[in-house]
Design a protein that fits this description.
binds ligand DWN; Rossmann fold; alpha/beta
Length: about 400
C-alpha cells in the first residue's frame, strides 16, 4: 500500500517549455499535484499519481542527453565497458534519446527504441535501426521476430519514467537471450535522501528506485538482480545488472554490500521518508530566505541550466522573474522559450552569462564540476554560484 510522505505543490510538466507567454497560451498550461509516496510492500518510492506518458514524450521533447561533455564521455565509457565485458552479438537501448550511448556501437549490432519522434529521427538519420514507439510486450515480440533475442539491453534514465513496470520487465524478459543481461541506470533514492535532492521528483520520474525495490519488482518477471554499481551521474545514480532467473550469473559481493547499506540507511522504513520530507520543507525556506536577501541588495541572479529538475524547485518554492532575470541553457531548443510554470525566459549562455551576473543558481547542479571548470572566469571575477544540494548555500 502506497503512503504519501511529500507534497511538492502544483507543478507543470517539466518538459513543457513555453514558446510564448501570451494569456491564451498560459491558460492552456497543464498543472498537476506532485506528491511522492512509499510502498511498504515492495519498498518502492513513486509519484502518488502519474501523468499520461502520451502528454510527456512528444515530438517536442526538449532534453538532449549529449549536451554535456561529462555525459558524452560517460556513455562512451560504459558502452565500451559493456561490449568488452559481455561481448553481446545484438544489443538494444530503450530510450535512446539523441544516440549518445549507441553511437559507440557498430550500427549492425544495436537497435534503438525511442518514443519521442523528434529524437528517434536523429538516430534514424545516423543509420541506426530505430523503433519510434513506447516499450511494450508487443514491441518486444516484434523485435525478437524481426531480429533475434538480445544479449544486452541498456537503458539509462528511462525505465524509472515508465508507469507500468510489470509490462516493462515482462517485455524485457521476452526479448533477452538465455544469458542476456539488462543494465539500467536511474537516479538513486539513497542519494536523494542523503543529498536532499528533492528536485529528482517531477512528472517524468514516476519511480526513484533502490536495490530493494528493483529486486522485488524484477522478480515478478522471471528476472533477478545480480550486481549493482553506484555511479555519479545525475547527482547520484545506481547501475543495476539484471539477468533471467535461470541465467549463469551469480550475485556479487558488492550487491550484498549495497543491499545491506540500504537496510542500514533504513530505505525500507517509512519514517526515513517522513524525516526527508521535513528537510525538504527547510530547504525551501532557506532558499527563499537567501534569494530574498540577495534581491534586497539588488543583486542580479540567474538560473544556470533550465533543467527538468529545476522545474520542481522553481514551482515548489514559487520562484519566478521576481528572483531570476533569466535562465541560461546550452540546449538550442530550450533557448528563446520560457520555463514551465514560472515563465522565466531562457537564453543561450553566450547571450546571458556576462559580467552583469552576480549569482547563478545551479539548476544543473549535477554538472557542478564541469560547470565550475568552464566558468572559471566568472568565479575569478567574484561571481558566485548558489545550490540547494545538499543544503542551501553560496559557493
Ligand atoms: O531523466 C531525465 C534526465 C536524465 O535528463 C529526464 N527525464 C530529463 C533530463 O532531466 P534534467 O533536465 O534535469 O537533466 P540534466 O541532464 O541535468 O540537464 C542539464 C541541463 O543543463 C541541459 O538542459 C543542458 C544544460 N547545461 C548547460 O546549460 N550548461 C548543462 C551543462 C553541463 C552546461 O554547462
Amino acid at each position: 500500500m502506497k503512503k504519501k510522505f511529500l507534497d511538492l505543490a502544483k507543478q507543470p510538466l517539466a518538459n513543457s517549455f513555453l514558446h510564448n507567454i501570451k494569456k491564451k497560451n498560459l491558460k492552456r498550461e497543464y498543472f498537476y499535484n506532485l506528491s511522492v509516496s512509499f510502498d511498504k510492500k515492495n519498498h518502492q518510492v513513486s509519484l502518488t499519481k502519474h501523468v499520461n506518458p502520451k502528454m510527456q514524450y512528444t515530438n517536442l521533447y526538449a532534453h538532449r542527453a549529449s549536451q554535456s561533455q561529462t555525459m558524452r564521455k560517460f556513455f562512451q565509457d560504459i558502452a565500451l565497458k559493456l561490449q568488452r565485458k559481455f561481448k553481446p552479438k545484438l544489443s538494444m537501448e530503450i530510450g535512446s534519446n539523441d544516440g549518445v550511448f549507441l553511437k559507440n556501437f557498430n550500427k549492425k549490432n544495436i537497435i534503438a527504441v525511442e518514443p519521442c519522434i523528434n529524437l528517434a529521427k536523429i538516430t534514424k538519420l545516423q543509420g541506426y535501426k530505430t523503433y519510434s514507439k513506447f516499450w511494450t510486450k508487443k514491441l518486444a515480440k516484434n523485435i525478437v521476430k524481426s531480429h533475434q533475442k538480445l544479449d544486452l539491453i541498456f537503458s539509462a534514465n528511462t525505465l524509472s519514467h515508465i508507469p507500468n513496470l510489470k509490462e516493462t520487465f515482462d517485455a524485457i524478459s521476452i526479448s533477452l537471450s538465455k544469458d542476456g543481461i539488462l543494465v539500467i541506470e536511474d537516479p538513486y533514492i539513497g542519494t536523494v535522501i542523503k543529498s536532499n535532492s528533492y528536485d529528482q521528483f517531477y512528472d517524468e520520474h514516476v519511480y526513484v528506485f533502490s536495490l530493494l525495490s528493483i529486486s522485488k519488482t524484477v522478480s515478478l518477471s522471471n528476472l533477478r538482480l545480480f550486481d549493482s554499481e553506484p555511479i555519479t551521474t545525475h547527482g547520484g545514480s545506481m547501475r543495476y545488472y539484471i539477468c533471467k532467473v535461470e541465467s549463469k550469473y551469480k550475485p556479487t559481493k558488492r550487491l550484498n554490500y549495497f543491499i545491506n547499506k540500504e537496510l542500514k540507511q533504513k530505505l525500507n522504513k517509512f519514517s526515513t521518508y517522513q524525516n526527508f520530507s521535513q528537510r525538504v520543507k527547510k530547504s525551501k525556506k532557506d532558499l527563499i530566505k537567501l534569494l530574498t536577501s540577495l534581491k534586497k541588495k539588488k543583486k542580479k541572479i540567474i538560473v544556470y541550466g533550465a533543467t527538468y529538475k529545476s522545474t520542481t524547485i522553481l514551482n515548489y518554492c514559487n520562484l519566478g522573474s521576481k528572483y531570476f532575470d533569466y535562465a541560461i541553457d546550452t540546449t538550442p531548443n530550450k533557448q528563446g522559450k520560457f520555463t514551465p510554470g514560472k515563465h522565466i525566459p531562457i537564453i543561450s549562455p553566450q547571450k546571458g552569462f556576462n559580467d552583469s551576473v552576480d549569482y547563478a543558481f545551479l539548476g544543473a547542479w549535477n554538472f557542478k564540476k564541469e560547470i565550475f571548470k568552464k566558468e572559471i572566469n566568472f568565479i575569478k571575477r567574484g561571481g558566485k554560484f548558489i545550490t540547494h544540494v545538499p543544503k542551501v548555500r553560496i559557493i
